[in-house]
Amino acid sequence: MRGQGTLWSFLHDETMTTTSTQQAEGAIRFRYRLTTARETDALDAQRFSRLGGWRRVLKTLALIGRDPTRYDGFAYGNLSVRDRADPTRFFVTASQTDGAPKLVPDDVVRIDAWNVERFEVDATGAHPPSSESITHAMVYAADARIDWIMHVHSPAIWRSATSLKLPTTATDVEYGSPAMAEAVDTLTHRHARRPLVFATLGHEDGVFACGATADGTGAALLRALERALVRPS
After folding, report:
1. Sequential DSSP letters for 28-89
2. How far apart are CA 219 and CA 207, in angstroms?
3. Given CB 3.0 to 4.6 Å as the disulfide criterion, which of 14, 17, 66, 92 pairs with 75?
4. pTM for the complete prediction?
5. Which residues fall within 8 angstroms of residue 182, CB to CB, at 6 or more apart?
């Protein structure tokens, strides 16, 4: 299978956690194993700074965060960056942490392995990985040029995806599901432009941007937002 990650490992000591499959925003739908991180497992300072900086930008624009009037009060959105030490791994903001005012090291989890068929993730960190971790994994596996992914919730971009001519996943493809992982894998291979911005029509307001650099990825996302807000009615 394209986009297949390293197979699930049972070599760690931590207890496997099986999570809910409920449809609430942010609910983790895959099985995961979480290993306690050591100091040497942390994201490097330079990339942590860029991750935190773009998180502040997106949070200021309400593209990520937590709002009691949206998505039943669950936090929404997540960011990730490929691991320089091992390009088959990546770091992603942990589940339900984007409502916090500031990013701290414990809010970032490393994804070490994943298996799409079994829908399982092997991670290292202090908190459960993002509910979209396997979706991020498929994007990284599809293109070695991609080092950054930003997943936001933008009603403006999402509702304008067709008029903006953005690639999209189908309306019957739910967030955080095996079908979403497969759809994103296909989409990323089909659309070669980088940075790439696409909408997930089966995941309310869901928009992804991916690219080689944090600034290039973030700028592509903001350009899409600008186009959505100023487009002719």
Report:
1. --SEEEEEPPPGGGSPPHHHHHHHHHHHHHHHHTTSSEE-TTSGGG-EE-EEEEE-SS-TT-
2. 14
3. 66
4. 0.88
5. 116, 138
